[in-house]
Amino acid sequence: MFSRQTGATLVVGLIMLVAITLLMISAFSLSGGNLKAVGNMQLRNEAIAAANMAIEQTININFVAIDPANYPTTVDIDIDQDDTTDYVVTLKAPLCLKATLAPANVAALSGVNSTITNSSNYLTLWEIEAAAQNGATGASVVAKQGIAKEMTQSEYLLSSCST
Question: What is the average pLDDT across 63-81?
Answer without folding.
Answer: 88
